[in-house]
Amino acid sequence: MLSIGATGISEALTNLARTQELAHERIDDAVQRAAVNCQEYAQAICPVDTGEMRDGFEAINNGPLSSSTINDVLHSLFVELGTIHMAAQPTLYPAFLDASQTLIEECHAI
Question: Which of 24, 43, 46, 52 would suit a FRET pair with 70, their CA atoms being 20 to 30 Å apart?
Fold first, then answer.
């Protein structure tokens, strides 16, 4: 009768689980940072009259691996998309593109 044994399997599985947990934490940190980066970029390029729109950008942590950057100032929608009387002055979309590219690069590095 032939018998083969292996040792260290439980340690390897424990290490693998810990590595997965650390990667999850690092990716979550990167996602949350992306929302803040998006907020800061949008504020930096935002047209300013009273400052209400610029100050209305907010990064929100929605939970694990989820974040948002919003602006709940009503006229920010019209500035972002434009109207029939005013050309669009996008701020959130270019900020999103910049932050998402940085997020992709950070995730590739993990």
Answer: 24
